[in-house]
Every structure is written in C-alpha cells, then in structure tokens.
C-alpha cells in the first residue's frame, strides 16, 4: 500500500512539475496546488499507513494509528489553502493590471 | 513558568489582529506597532539576561511535555536575533511613518508588518521542526502581501515570481520533514538530535540534510539567490529594508540550527557543501554587485554577499568562526536595513534608481552622504564599526581550520563590497552637483531620523562589542555543544 | 447580470439551513469525535458561498451586513486570546481546561475552554473563505 501511495505521490509531482513549467500563470498555480497535495500524501505515507483504530480516547482498540502526520497534514493543508488563495488573487490582479497571464511577458523588471 | 518567551511572537500576532479593527485610525496603528516592537526589544533583553543565569528556557505549549508537544526554546542565539529584529523593525516602522503613504496604511500595512515579525520571531524561537515550517509560512504569507501591497505593475510581476519560488521551497521543506519523520520518527529538534546521534548519521539522513540545505539555501539566498534581487527591488523602501534585514536571516538561522544541532556528524560532507556554496555565493554576489547600475540591484546583491560570508562561519564551524558569524549576523541585519533605507531615500530624492543619473548629492544632503560613507565602511569591516569584529573572527576561524580558499574569498568579497558601494558613493555623492537649490526635494526629517538611529546602532555595536561578548560566546557555545540544548529541553 | 433561477433559489432557501445545522453539528462534535472548528467553519462558509452564488452579492450583503475581513480577524483574535487566557492562570501558553457543570435544560454538561478556541478558528475560516470568494468575484 505504501509503495502505491508513494508512486501516486510521484505521479502528482510529475504532473505538478509539468504544470509549473508551462507559460500560463493559472497552470502554474494549479501546479503548486497539486505539488502541495503530493507533499501531503508523502507525509501521510512516511508516517506509515498502519492498520489501527482512530486515535481517539473512546475507541479502546489494541492499536492506534499515528495521529501526528494527520495533524501535520491538516496544518499544511490550511497553509497551502491560504497560499493558493492568495496566489490566485495575486494572479488575477496581475492579469487585470498587466493584461497577460503569459509568464514570458512578465519577465524582467526594468519597465515601470 | 516561562510564558514570557512566547510573547515576542504572540504579541505581534495579537496586535496585528487588533490593528485590523483600527483600519482608518492610522495614527493609532503607527504608535501601537512601534510600541509593540519596543516592548519586544525590552522583553528580549530581559529574557537574554535570564538565560545567562538560568540557562536555556523553554515553554511547552498547553503543558504537553517534549517530545510530544510543541515548544518554544529560547537560547542566547535566538534571543540575540529576536532583539535585533525588534530594533530593526522599530526603525523601519519609523521610516515607513513618513514614506509609506496613506494608501498602504489603510490597507493594513502595519498589521502585516506585525505578522511578518511574528513569523520571524516564531522561527527563531521554536524548538520543533514542523513549527518552524509553520512560522516560516506565517512570515512568507505576510511578505507576499507586503511585496504586492500597493499593486504597482513591477510589484505584481515580482510578487508572482517570489510566491512561486517560495511555494516551491516550502514544498521541499515539507518533503524533507516527511522523510525525516519517516526515518527518525520525531520532529522535536532536541529529540531529533538525540536520536540522530544515537543512530549515527546514516547516508540516508545525510541526503535528507542536503534536502534541508536546499530549502534553506532557497530561503536565505545561498547560491540559489536568483530570485532575490528582483523581489527585493520591487516593494517600497521600508518594506525592502525589512526584507533585506530579516527574511534571508531567518533562512540562515534555520541553517545554523539544523546543521549544528541535528546534522553535525558528517561535517566532511555537509559542511564542505555549505563551504562550497558559500564560496560560490560570495563570487556570484560580488559579480552581481558590480554588474548593475540600478542602486536597488547593487544593494540586493550586497545582501547575497553577506549571506555567503555568514555561512563561511558555519562551514568552518570553529568556535571563533561561529561567534564571528553571530556578530556578523547582528551587524548585517542592522546595516542592510540602513543600506536599503539610504538607497530608498536617494531614489526618493532624485527620482531615479540609476547611479549614472545621480551626482553631487553630498552638497545637497551632506548628512545622507556621510551616513552612506559610514555604512560603506561598516560593511567593508573597518574598525571601530560593527562589521569589523565579525569579519576578524570569521577570518580567524577560517585560518585556524585551514580553509584558506574560503578565507581568501571572504576577504576578497569584502573588497568587492567596498568597491561596489564606493562606486555608488563616487557616482552619486561626489561630482558635479546637478540638483540646483530650487529643484532640491526637501529631505523629510522622518526619513533621516531612522537612518541616523541605525548609524548610531552600527557604531555602538562596533564600540560596544565587548559588552555583548558574554551573550555571543554563550550563543556559540550552545550551538557547538548540542548537549546543552538537549539537556535543557528533554532532561529536566 | 441577474439570473433568475427560481428552482435553485427555492432549494437553496431550505438547503442552507441543512448546511448550517451540519456545520454546527460538526463544530460541536469536534470535541471528542471527528469534526471541529476548521471543518465546521468550512461547511459554514459553503453555506454563505452558496447564498452568494444563488442570490446576487448585493442582496446577500444587505441581509448579512458583516465585513468578512473583520469576521476573520475576530476569529483569529478569539483563538489567540484563549492562548493568552492561560497566561492569567499562570499555566503554559495555550493550556486548555474543562469541567462539568449542571446547567438548566441540558443537565450535566461538559464545558471546555477549547470550544472558544475552536469558535475562533471557525470564524477565521468563514471570514477568510468568504473574503477570498468575494474579492475574486466582486469585480468580474
């Protein structure tokens, strides 16, 4: 199971890389979003996909899953959510201001 | 109870939130945020002195003891940096009162400065690797907003690149954390250090450490500084000064922490790589500083050179070199802020950033000129200014360790720093005065006062290095003896 | 542009209340079961977003005259302030406590300070999500 998820994470990374390397700004943003999902999957897998009960007090099971990766992922999802949202707004503002979403046109900084 | 060590991070957060409600009352916002920074400086001095008598302090959030809970750890190194951050931010705030403009102030500028400082202080204080990531992100989110606030074309363009590159480096950070958690099974820094020491630093862990090196290299601009000059040239002066003073330094701090506390067993691999990267950064930064005529670019490349210089100290890792790096870190935060403020003031006065179009400013604005001269001397490491002691100690450390190439590069880069700034000085302040008396843009007192304050600090830091010596040597001692840190966190 | 979508509007009027109930349920169950402030807040935000999509923005803003930026700030303030609360009792920052109280109607109830923290989180999430949606959609 772990191997499968790792491969899935790798597929996501390659998809994200492809998207990030494209010219369109919106694709780049989608790429960064997918990239962070790949990282979340990786964290979960690195914590070990154990067969155990939910780590809650009332469960009284013999083994529990590790709760820490979940907590890490939740935090990191919130952060990537905020970053992606901000990035989208920023891209939208840039698009209206500069009039293009082509990253090649956004090069350089000389022109004011 | 050590609740006080959480204050440098939490007060700015809380005040930043409160300032959102004070939207239209810019006067109140100004003074409250300045008050926060001054209070932070006071608190950090108090904690710094407490650490000297009581040893490293720690606070377990919510009473969850390590290694299970999140915790803040205050040692001399982090508190010195928190103190410097508070001082630099207060001065930049004063500068922004007079330069940032009403539009910024009503768009929650001060809130985001507070959040930025909260993230920076949190990164310095945290004792948990994932918490470090979170604090980094708080800092970065605030910086994304600050860089784009104002919405000029160039700002938006640069902010897109800045956000993209930082999202990527945050991704590397997460991946590195995931691998480390998968390998060692903990994220508490002291616990990590203990377990890595027990298990020995296996090749796998060394690879993970290089992943961390990549992350912090991107954040601090160690060789991977290609994004830095563009991003730091775009925002308004006060923001650029804050960025130049604080952001790269957080990356440097993280690198020091990780490579002295966690991955210090395979120095022949990791520290050699750091040394090579630092050397290349020095070379690249020097070339960049000479290549451009835009004063903002020149100043930004000076940030890069300083990053290389400080990390020479880490690569060498002798006690003198580490002490030197700490001195230089403090010095650089202050002086880089001052340099950015001076460059921004020059741009404000002349309306151009190209040094070819400025000339003879010293006749119009003598004080500004002489302050630029002092900064230049300080950066070049002329005694008795603040850059001197750091340079000497790093140099001594490098010579002791026999890394003569790094030693040579570090000092040749100082000459390049001097030359790049001397070029600005000669071209902008000397020569024929082209601004006639009636065209002269009046220099606002509010812009001059912060510069004078920082100049006094750099002189004071140079003259008063003696009185800082016990704190700095304690900080270096903690960095070089991970057991001190581990004992304070896990065994008491 | 105003689309008069009668069916969607009629359904939304009912569905919004179901979503709100679910949000409150998720929020309260978060104490001992899956759920909590973040998820509750997200669900709450979807209710608002649905309203904004189905009816137009002006109508809803008249009905819900909050500045959602301020809502987010208030939420964040609550969350940080509960952390500060523990300073008053000389406990480590962010300490939480709980106790059992006999309340009229409810009988013996567990009340925990973490609920205030979670409420702050929920408000912050609602505020942020709605602000983002509004700031993108407002000037299209």
TrEMBL record, chain A:
InterPro entries: CPA3_antiporter_subunitC, NUOK/Mnh_C1-like. It is found in: Cell membrane. Gene3D superfamilies: 1.10.287.3510. It holds the Pfam family Oxidored_q2. The keyword Nucleotide-binding does not apply. It is a multi-pass membrane protein. This is Na(+)/H(+) antiporter subunit C. Keywords: Cell membrane, Membrane, Transmembrane, Transmembrane helix. The chain crosses the membrane at residues 6-21, 28-47, 67-92. Its main location: membrane. Belongs to the CPA3 antiporters (TC 2.A.63) subunit C family. One of its GO terms (cellular component) is plasma membrane.
TrEMBL record, chain B:
One of its GO terms (biological process) is ATP synthesis coupled electron transport. This is Na+/H+ antiporter subunit D. It comes from the Bacteria. InterPro entries: CPA3_Na-H_Antiporter_D, NADH_UbQ_OxRdtase, ND/Mrp_TM. Residues 127-416 form the NADH:quinone oxidoreductase/Mrp antiporter transmembrane domain. Belongs to the CPA3 antiporters (TC 2.A.63) subunit D family. GO terms for cellular component: plasma membrane. It is a multi-pass membrane protein.
Automatic annotation (TrEMBL), chain C:
It is a multi-pass membrane protein. GO terms for cellular component: plasma membrane. Keywords: Cell membrane, Membrane, Transmembrane, Transmembrane helix. Residues 7-131 form the Na+/H+ antiporter MnhB subunit-related protein domain. Its main location: membrane. It is found in: Cell membrane. The chain crosses the membrane at residues 7-28, 34-55, 71-91, 111-136. Belongs to the CPA3 antiporters (TC 2.A.63) subunit B family. PANTHER family: NA(+)/H(+) ANTIPORTER SUBUNIT B, NA(+)_H(+) ANTIPORTER SUBUNIT B. This is Na(+)/H(+) antiporter subunit B.
């Amino acid at each position: 199971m772990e191997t499968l998820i790792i491969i899935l994470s790798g597929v996501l990374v390659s998809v994200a890389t492809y998207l990030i390397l494209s010219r369109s700004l919106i694709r780049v943003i989608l790429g960064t979003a997918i990239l962070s999902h790949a990282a979340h999957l990786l964290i979960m897998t690195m914590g070990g996909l154990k067969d155990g009960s939910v780590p809650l007090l009332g469960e009284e099971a013999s083994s529990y899953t590790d709760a820490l990766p979940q907590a890490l992922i939740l935090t990191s999802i919130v952060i990537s959510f905020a970053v992606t949202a901000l990035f989208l707004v920023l891209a939208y503002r840039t698009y209206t201001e500069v009039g293009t979403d082509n990253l090649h046109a956004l090069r350089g900084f000389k022109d004011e | 109870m050590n609740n006080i060590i959480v204050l440098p991070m939490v007060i700015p957060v809380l005040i930043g939130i409160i300032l959102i409600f004070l939207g239209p009352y810019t006067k109140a916002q100004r003074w409250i945020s300045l008050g926060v920074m001054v209070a932070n400086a006071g608190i950090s001095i108090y904690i710094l002195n407490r650490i000297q008598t009581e040893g490293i302090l720690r606070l377990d959030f919510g009473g969850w003891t390590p290694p299970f809970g999140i915790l803040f750890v205050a040692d001399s190194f982090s508190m010195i940096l928190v103190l410097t951050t508070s001082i630099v931010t207060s001065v930049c705030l004063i500068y922004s009162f007079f330069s940032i403009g009403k539009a910024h102030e009503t768009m929650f500028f001060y809130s985001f400065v507070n959040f930025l400082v909260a993230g920076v202080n949190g990164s310095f204080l945290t004792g948990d690797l994932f918490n470090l990531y979170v604090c980094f992100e708080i800092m970065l989110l605030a910086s994304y907003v600050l860089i784009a606030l104002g919405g000029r074309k160039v700002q938006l363009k640069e902010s897109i690149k800045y956000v993209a590159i930082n999202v990527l480096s945050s991704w590397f950070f997460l991946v590195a954390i995931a691998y480390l958690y998968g390998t060692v099974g903990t994220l508490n820094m002291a616990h990590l250090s203990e377990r890595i020491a027990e298990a020995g630093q296996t090749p796998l862990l060394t690879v993970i450490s290089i992943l961390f090196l990549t992350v912090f290299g991107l954040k601090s601009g160690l060789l991977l500084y290609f994004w830095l000059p563009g991003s730091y040239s775009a925002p308004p002066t006060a923001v650029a000064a804050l960025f130049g003073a604080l952001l790269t330094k957080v990356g440097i701090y993280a690198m020091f922490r990780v490579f002295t506390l966690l991955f210090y067993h395979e120095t022949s691999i990791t520290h050699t790589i750091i040394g090579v990267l630092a050397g290349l950064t020095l070379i690249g930064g020097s070339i960049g500083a000479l290549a451009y005529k835009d004063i903002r670019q020149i100043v930004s490349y000076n940030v890069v050179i300083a990053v290389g210089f400080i990390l020479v100290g880490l690569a060498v890792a002798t006690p003198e070199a580490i002490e030197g790096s700490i001195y230089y870190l403090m010095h650089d935060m202050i002086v880089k802020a001052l340099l950015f403020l001076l460059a921004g003031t020059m741009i404000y006065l002349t309306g151009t950033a190209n040094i070819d179009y400025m000339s003879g400013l010293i006749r119009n604005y003598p004080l500004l000129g002489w302050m630029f001269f002092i900064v230049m001397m300080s950066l070049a490491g002329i005694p008795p200014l603040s850059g001197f002691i750091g340079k000497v100690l790093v140099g001594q450390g490098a010579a002791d360790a026999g890394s003569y190439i790094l030693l040579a590069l570090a000092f040749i880069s100082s000459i390049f720093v001097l030359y790049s700034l001397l070029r600005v000085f000669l071209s902008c302040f000397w020569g024929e005065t082209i601004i006639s008396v009636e065209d002269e843009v009046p220099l606002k007192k509010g812009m001059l006062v912060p510069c004078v304050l920082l100049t006094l600090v750099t002189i004071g830091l140079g003259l008063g290095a003696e009185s800082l010596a016990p704190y700095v040597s304690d900080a270096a001692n903690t960095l070089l003896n991970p057991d001190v840190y581990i004992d304070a966190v896990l065994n008491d | 542009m105003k689309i008069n979508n009668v069916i969607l509007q009629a359904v939304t009027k009912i569905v919004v209340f179901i979503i709100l109930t679910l949000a409150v349920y998720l929020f309260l169950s978060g104490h001992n079961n899956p759920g909590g402030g973040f998820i509750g807040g997200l669900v709450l935000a979807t209710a608002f977003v649905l309203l904004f999509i189905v009816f137009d923005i002006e109508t809803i803003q008249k009905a819900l005259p909050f500045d959602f930026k301020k809502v987010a700030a208030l939420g964040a303030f609550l969350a940080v302030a509960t952390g500060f609360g523990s300073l008053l009792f000389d406990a480590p920052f962010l300490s939480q406590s709980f106790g059992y109280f006999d309340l009229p109607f409810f009988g013996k109830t567990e009340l925990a300070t973490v609920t205030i923290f979670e409420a702050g989180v929920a408000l912050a999430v609602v505020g942020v999500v709605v602000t983002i949606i509004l700031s993108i959609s407002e000037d299209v």
